[in-house]
Specification:
The structure is a homodimer. Chain A contains 6 helices and 2 strands; from the N terminus they run ααββαααα. Chain A has a two-stranded antiparallel ribbon with strand order 1-2. By secondary structure, the first copy, chain A, is mainly alpha-helical. In chain A, 64% of the residues lie in helices and 3% in strands. Chain A has helices at residues 3-10, 14-22, 41-55, 60-70, 78-109, 122-128; strands spanning 30-31, 37-38. The first copy, chain A, starts with a helix and ends with a helix. The interface between A and B is large, with 48 and 48 residues. Chain A binds a DNA duplex through α2.
Amino acid sequence: MKIGDVAKTTGCSIQTIRFYEKKGLLPELKRSSGNYRVYDKGTIEQLLFIKQCRSLDMSITEVKTLMDSRSKPDQSCSNINTLIAKHLSDVIIRIEELNALKSSLENMASKCDQDKTIRDCGILNYLHT
Amino acid sequence: MKIGDVAKTTGCSIQTIRFYEKKGLLPELKRSSGNYRVYDKGTIEQLLFIKQCRSLDMSITEVKTLMDSRSKPDQSCSNINTLIAKHLSDVIIRIEELNALKSSLENMASKCDQDKTIRDCGILNYLHT
DNA sequence: ATAAAGTCTATACTTGGTATAGAGTCAACG
DNA sequence: CGTTGACTCTATACCAAGTATAGACTTTAT
């Protein structure tokens, strides 16, 4: 399989696949005689794994940690549980931040719901304070 | 006032102040004979304005739009109201995304609350699917 | 006079990709 | 056999919003 096929199958762009390779997420791949990347089923599986992790907003470093763990099946998985728990807690914190932000913005928006001049704009005056 | 004083007064770092200047958020500043940036009260006010906008997660482009508007006091402020409404709606969308993410992560975390081997880790098996 | 603190510019780095340029490769068609 | 078109290659630059240097210059204090 060449990179274009892999891109179509996985939904990752060609550049993204090369990017993941450079970041060390796609190990030990082969090249054809014409220096083309050659992929097998395993790589597609790996890319889908990465894609799923990314859709959960994990960083590349986190994904790399998970992938490295996968190659050590006899070790304890406690570090994985910890990683997910930490990630979840980060998400919860971010939600709280954004909810506070939302309240501020709603409050500010309410200062100027009509069409006034810039001089009399409740929003700008609020921000200026 | 020199940049170090401004940094202390506003809580922006020296590099950030220079960065904002390069981005066009701090117009027309003077230089001393030794080529040092010279600031007045107005600049500090402007920096605090920027800081408040940034604390509301507005982009630099958005802040620039607001600052440009401030120099046209007789125009309508409808574009400002629109900008804030759009920003608020972006925040709300992001909160919804993160709440969905949170559910997924909680679900995934529940697949493996004990300490198992990597091979048997409910989280990794979930992700692998 | 000299040392320390402050400032200057320019550049590189971060994250997670995206978007080129210019060169090389491969398959099909006439 | 040549050539066109589709594909791939590497290398580089770009985005946001700063942060962090290096090396040179200025000012302040002793």
